[in-house]
Specification:
This protein has 220 residues and is of the alpha+beta class. It has helices spanning 16-36, 40-50, 59-69, 73-86, 92-123, 127-133, 184-196; strands at residues 139-146, 162-168, 173-181, 203-208, 211-216.
Length: 220
């Protein structure tokens, strides 16, 4: 009987854990990409699969934001509260304020939906839909949190935009807003200038009709 010939392996089998890590990283980046383009329906399952993974603590936060963007205000608030109990990083206050803004928009959208339903029932006309389909120019603003007084001067910031402040008494912080940006490129360029001034959590907020619809260029 002829001896059996052992055929050498032609491919390397990486440990399963390595594939799991690569898959998780891919999922998170995919979720971020979907979220950045307002494709919340596809972003949601990406963050949902990672929200319990301790290596991706922000996944649960992004899951809550995606829920809020899709109009699930109650579930979004519930997910965020669970996230906030465990997340103790230095940017937690900034994330809290961003989420509060998204939740406010979620509630506003719900009210508009109710108004639309009432108008349709009363007149048979979709008045709210006509307002929503009207072309509206987007406005870009740079926002960041600081422990400064509202009359504090920022001579360098005056060179990159107009300054307005909003006080959050429950957290004893001010949100600073630099407005007047009509395109994302100029806002993105200036947000890096603002970070060099020491405001490392500065980000770009996108507004329509005075309502913030998205946030971009978060600090890594």
């Amino acid at each position: 009987m002829a001896d059996l010939v052992e055929i050498p392996a032609t491919s390397y089998d990486a440990p399963e854990s390595r594939y799991d890590e690569e898959a998780a990283e891919f999922l998170y980046k995919a979720g971020e990409s979907y979220f950045a383009t307002n494709d919340f329906e596809n972003a949601l399952p990406c963050f949902n699969k990672l929200k319990a993974d301790p290596k991706y603590p922000r996944a649960k936060y992004m899951f809550a934001l995606a829920l809020s963007a899709m109009g699930n205000c109650y579930e979004a608030k519930k997910e965020y509260k669970e996230f906030a109990k465990k997340y103790k990083e230095t940017d937690s206050r900034t994330l809290e304020i961003i989420f509060a803004s998204h939740l406010e928009r979620c509630a506003t959208a719900g009210k508009l939906k109710n108004i639309k339903a009432k108008n349709e029932k009363a007149n048979g006309t979709d008045l709210v839909s006509n307002l929503n389909t009207k072309e509206v120019a987007k406005e870009y603003k740079i926002q960041f949190i600081a422990m400064k007084k509202p009359d504090a001067t920022f001579p360098k910031l005056a060179e990159v935009g107009n300054i307005s402040t909003e006080f959050f008494p429950n957290m004893s912080v001010f949100r600073y807003t630099l407005d007047g940006y009509n395109d994302i490129k100029s806002a993105a360029a200036d947000v890096y200038k603002v970070r060099k001034m020491g405001f490392r959590d500065a980000f770009v907020a996108v507004y329509e009709n005075g309502i913030r619809i998205n946030t971009l260029y978060h600090a890594k």
